[in-house]
Structure prediction request, 74 residues.
Amino acid sequence: MLKLLHVEDDESIVAISRLALETMGGMTVKSCTRGQQAIEAAPGFQPDLILLDVMMPDMDGPTTLTELAKVIDL
Prediction:
């Protein structure tokens, strides 16, 4: 089963995406609402895929991706 790290600050998008990805896609989904939260969760979760919002408060998607690359093998 594929593990997907989903980083999205909009709670409604998180809920809809989780439902579709888990139910229809058969994936295990770890949802994070902030970039820093994803950076902290990623090493223990070891995702196969990352679905990352570009525009988020505090830390944008490109910055989050750069920081994720430092803590997991991309």
Notes: Helices lie at 11-24, 35-45, 61-71. The beta strands are 3-7, 28-32, 49-52. Residues 5 and 50 are 5 Å apart (CA to CA).
